[in-house]
Amino acid sequence: MSIFFYCNFKNKKQWLNSINKKFPKHKVFTIKDKPDFSKIKYAIVWNLPDTIMKKLKNVKIFFSLGAGVDHIINLPSYNKTPIVRVKDINMAERMSYHVHSQILTYQLKLYLFQKAQIQKKWLGEQNTKLNKDITIGIVGLGFLGNYVADYLYNLNYSVLGLKREIRQKESKIKIFTEKNLNKFLNLSDIVVSILPDTKKTKNLINKKFLNLMKKNSFLINIGRGSTLNEHDLLLHLNKNKNFFVSLDVFKTEPLPKNNKFWTQKNVIITPHAAALTDIDSSIDLMVNRFKHFKKTGKIKSDVNLIKGY
Ligand code: OXD
Prior knowledge:
Radius of gyration: 21 Å
Number of domains: 2
Bound molecules: oxalic acid
Helix content: 25-40%
Distance between the termini: 28 Å
CATH superfamily of the largest domain: NAD(P)-binding Rossmann-like Domain
Low-confidence stretches: none
Shape: elongated
CATH topology of the largest domain: Rossmann fold
Number of strands: 12
CATH architecture of the largest domain: 3-Layer(aba) Sandwich
Largest sheet: 7 strands, parallel
Structural class: alpha/beta
C-alpha cells in the first residue's frame, strides 16, 4: 500500500523517518519521489496544496499531522474522504502547560517584572490572587479544550466552559451555551479560546464579545487566528489599558513584521507554539487507526463536515 507524506515543517525529515519506521511494510512517498498519485491510498499531510489534493483521488484516509483539520477541509478539491486527526494526550498536556504559563504571567504580574527588568527597576512585591479566586472561561470544549479545562480545575481554579450545545451533565465544570454568552463572559476573569476554524467561528471574538468581557481581564487565543477580529482587538486594547491578551495564532502566520500586535502594549505573542505535535505518539495513533481499518475495513472520520471540525 502506498502512503504519501506532505508537510512544510522544519523537522519534516524527522517525521518522515518516524513514519518509515512505524509503517515498515509500506512505501512512503514524498513529493520529491514524483509518485503516481492515483496509486496513493493513505496520505499523511499538513498544509497540502490543492494542486496535489486534486490528484489524490483514491485516498481512503487523510491523516492530519495536527489537531486541526481546516488545512484539509478548506481545500476546494477535498472530497469528504475520512480524516484522522491527532488527538494526543501529550499535545493536550503541553497545551495545558502553555495556558497555565500565560495565566501565571498574568496572575503573578510577571509581565510587570519583565518590563521593569529592562528599565533596571526594582518593583518589589505585588498583590496577587490565589487560584481559587480566579474564574477561567474556556471557549471550545473539544478534546483539547476539555483537557485544559480539567487541568485548570485540578489546580483549583474556578472553571467555566462555553460550547454550542450541552450534551452531558456529568462535567465537573459549569457549561454555558451562546445564549448565555453574556453571563459566561461577565463571570470570567480569564477567557481561553481553543476554537477551531469553521464558518461559525470566523471572527466570533469581535467587538461585541470583547465588550462583554470584564474591563480588566485576560484573553488567551490558542485556537485559530480566524476566530478573532484582530482590528476589533487592537481598538479594544487601545481603549482598555487593563485588558491583556496572549496570542498564539493569527490570521496571517508567520505574523508579518509590520503587524501592530508586535509593538502593542499588554500583548504577549507566541509563534503558534502552544502545543507541539509529538512525532512518535502522533504516528502511533495513526498506526493504531490504520491497523483497525485494515482489520475491519471501517474508518470513522474524526470530522463532522457539517460542524466543520
Ligand atoms: C494543530 C496546530 O492543529 O498545531 O495541531 O495548530
